[in-house]
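[[Encoded backbone]]
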Amino acid sequence: MSVEFVYACLIMARIKTGETRKTRHVANCEGTYVALHAQRLPKDRYEREMPMMIKMLREMWPELPDTFLQDAALGFDDGVVWALVEVGDTYTKTCCGKTPCNHECQSDPRHAWCPARKDLCIDGNFKFLHVTRLADIIPLRFAVRVRPMQGIFRAFLPAAAIPTDSMTGAQLHVWHHTQEVMQGKEPDAGTRCSAG
């Protein structure tokens, strides 16, 4: 799963716990691990956009430490896979049609989930209508460079990068299930997830 560098940092810091997409393709990977790939941004775009991005993040999460980008990305560059991320369930926005939601959840822009409606509560014009929960994160032992493509793509990670010896029993279970899915041993091999 390829995401912009700053969002990869937020995921690594366990601040960003969901991934929004236009399509439900990430939902096909529910119950497995996918690799977290931090997109490489051109230097001029990075320098131009990063101050605006930091300002936006500060408004949404005022408690973020000043060094969260450096801390989250410690030892990792952009353009590489940093971690395994367990894909949880996916919610699709159905409420409010084409007008902004008037429910109380809209009083805090950080929260897109409306507990009263049990639905995503966002403006109908927002293009990312599907949000997938990121259930668990396991940092790799070392970053792995892969050739990214749009959406979910298949890439191979060296076994030495996967910290299986420090995984919990639950993580190992999901990891073994992920390997089975990747090898096509699941009944519905058409929804195979990628490691990338």
